[in-house]
Design a protein that fits this description.
Blueprint: E1 42-43, H1 55-64, H2 77-87, E2 94-97, H3 100-111, E3 117-122, H4 127-134, E4 138-143, H5 152-157, E5 163-169, H6 181-190, E6 196-200, H7 215-221, E7 225-230, E8 243-246, H8 249-258, H9 266-277, H10 279-303, E9 314-318, H11 323-333, E10 335-336, E11 338-340, E12 344-348, H12 352-366
Parallel strand pairs: 1-10, 3-4, 3-5, 5-6, 6-7
Antiparallel strand pairs: 2-8, 7-8, 9-12, 11-12
Length: 368
Amino acid sequence: MTQQPRNTDETGAAPKLRAALAGLPAYKAGRPAAVSDGTPAFKLSSNENPYPPLPSVHKVVADAVGEMNRYPDPANTELVDTLAERFGVPASHIAAGTGSVTVAQQLVNATAGEGDEVIFAWRSFEAYPILVRLAGATPVQVPLLADESHDLDAMADAVTERTRLIFVCNPNNPTGTVIHRAELERFLDRVPNDVLVVLDEAYREFIRDERVPDGLDLYRERPNVAVLRTFSKAYGLAGLRVGFAIAHEPVAEALRKTGLPFAVNRLAQVAAVASLGAEAELLERVEALVAERTRVLETLVGQGWTVFDSQANFVWLRLGERTAEFAAMCEAAGVTVRPFDGEGCRITIGETEANTIFLAQAERFMDR
């Protein structure tokens, strides 16, 4: 006989939770591919790399499976040292975590709390307002410009004495738009030195616009700049969850203090190191995805869509009230995309067949 849990409070009151959770939206992950009646289905909703792991990466992960009874290296020593050599930075400037989103959370926790403010563009990465509210701080959302890019002047104007952190997503998720060096440097010149600016570069490897700066160049020049990177996108390790930040010593040390012990598991650590060793081969796959991105964008323009250039592994369609309609149409055809209610859809560049199915639905939608 199953015993019912006893309620020690006769009023039936539930356990008290933090007030900050009231009304906090849950993160919405991309829907998986909908499989029905044997029709091929593709997931274009989570900006995943469609290629499987490289054989060399697969091998080191398989070899490490036998070590699952042991805790991983809490300092991520081999990964940190490899990253330090790869990017030419001190190892003490690197902090790793379970994906760049977790490192972003550590950055928020290290800088902002009750009464503090964190600025970011909107729409931008969906996790930003969630992370800020969880820390008890206040999110300050600055609307994008008409061309879906950051309004850096408005973001600089939004800085107050309570501002502790600014996220700059470059390329921006979900619009794919970028910020060029001159405008980013002008913005950084306006930000007080005691405000941390985080350049979120999760899609850095897909950039082909030479006017977009490498955030690491700006970090080297400015102690209040940190750079976020991930192995989830170009390196194809989304399922293992490993990302990192490069920041000057005080910020990097704060990240290590706010990180959970043993957060990056052993399989993720060895896969990331192996991926850096196989970077040339991996970047060939990135070039193939960039070529597909070009095909998708050019086809959309030819169909009559107004689309702005994307420098990420996805494209963005501003659909307004017809967003859900378009997402449902794509899903019925075998591809799931990522709808943002009332705004638009983000579509990952995936397998050639998947991209072609999406483009066919985009053309049908234009004819409605």
